[in-house]
Design brief:
Blueprint lengths: L31 H18 L13 E6 L5 H12 L3 E6 L11 H10 L4 E6 L4 H8 L3 E7 L5 H15 L6 E5 L6 H12 L3 E5 L23 E3 L2 H5 L4 E4 L15 H8 L3 H6 L5 E3 L12 H4 L6 H22 L5
Parallel strand pairs: 1-2, 1-3, 3-4, 5-6, 5-8, 6-7, 8-9
Helix pairs in contact: 1-5, 1-11, 2-11, 5-6, 5-11
Bound molecules: phosphoric acid mono(formamide)ester.
Length: about 325
């Protein structure tokens, strides 16, 4: 791959702080410097997207397969768009139209795709750890596009990018993550990303939607030691720079964890009263899809503080940066 590949301000991936990596499974193994390089390269990718002809030859000759075993709009479409802007061939496979319907295992489906010369397989799966399993057993690069309630690294990176591009920095910003922490892969990957970048994170959920290993907080030596936990929404959002509302993951809740949606919305929904408690220039975020009127009011989701559509837009450039990093790890031009 040429050092520029049609993207003039792209930072070198052969420097000491290389972000070229074979797989992207979560942010736990990223350093803060590597995250910053992804964010810097996302700026370069935004410049490509802003051109009248949105196309560079960086991944020409590469094949990307998106293998989605769960519904998705944002992640799947943005990986496809990112790959196409970088001139890769992109093939989409969904579980409903694949041989997994006939009982084929995830491993055999992915092995079949690899045998058709896929360089990168972008995987979404309901089982936590599926992308890690594939990364251990296949030669293709694996990018985790969301696995169970384990991780969603590209979402966390686009969230970090959205915060940084709005405020100019992440360090020291108070970020309140509100809602279904228990089943949220977005919250888990954001915990890694935000703490590594020095944000002050507060988790806020009903007592029934906090993971058991989070209940007593984190010991001093834990990577999340700086993270605080509360069940009081007013306390969580007080003076917050960012409020990140999470979707109630009804499909992952095996038994009722809430007395009613109405009560949840009354106690934890983000509304105009909640926003008044935060900083005047608070940024309202949500990974989507949104249950409007449950975890966030319509007027807030579409109001002046909302960065929700910016998150979607930024997702394309972040995923371009990730595809480029993974392709760099796989060697030069084809
Ligand atoms: N945020 C997110 O993962 O959205 P999709 O499920 O639409 O991809």
């Amino acid at each position: 791959m040429s050092p520029h590949a049609g993207i003039p301000s792209l930072k070198s991936t052969t420097s000491e702080m290389s972000i070229s990596r074979k797989h992207i499974l979560d942010l736990d193994d990223f350093t803060a410097e590597e995250i910053q390089l992804v964010l810097d390269n996302t700026v370069a990718m935004q410049e490509v997207i802003s051109r009248s002809v949105r196309k560079v030859p960086a991944l020409r000759g590469r094949t990307i397969v998106t293998l989605f075993h769960e519904p998705s709009t944002r992640t799947r479409v943005s990986f496809e768009q990112a790959g196409k802007i970088l001139s890769a061939d992109v093939i989409n496979v969904s579980s409903s139209a694949s041989s997994s319907k006939k009982g084929e295992s995830l491993y055999n489906t992915a092995l079949t795709i690899q045998s058709m010369q896929a360089d990168i397989i972008v995987v979404r799966h309901p089982h936590s750890g599926s992308p890690n399993f594939l990364a251990r057993h296949l030669d293709s690069s694996i990018i985790n596009a969301g696995d169970g309630y384990h991780a969603h690294p590209s979402q966390a990176l686009l969230d970090l990018y959205t915060i940084q591009s709005h405020f100019g920095d992440i360090k020291g910003r108070k970020v309140a993550i509100v809602g279904d922490i228990m089943y949220s892969r977005v919250a888990r990957s954001n915990l890694w990303g935000l703490t590594k970048m020095g944000a002050q994170v507060v988790l806020c959920s009903p007592p029934t939607l906090i993971p058991p290993d989070f209940v007593n907080g984190f010991p001093k030596t834990h990577p999340f030691a700086s993270v605080s936990i509360t069940h009081n929404l007013s306390e969580a959002v007080k003076n917050a720079d960012v409020i990140m509302a999470l979707r109630l993951q009804a499909e992952r809740q095996s038994r009722g964890r809430l007395p009613s949606l109405r009560e949840y919305s009354r106690l934890y929904g983000i509304n105009s009263e909640t926003v008044k408690l935060a900083k005047e220039d608070v940024l309202i975020m949500h990974p989507g899809p949104i249950n409007e009127g449950i975890e966030i009011d319509t007027e807030i989701a579409h109001g002046p503080h909302s960065a929700i559509q910016d998150q979607v837009t930024n997702g394309v450039a972040v995923r371009m940066a990730l595809l480029y990093a993974v392709a760099s790890a796989n060697g030069g031009d084809k």
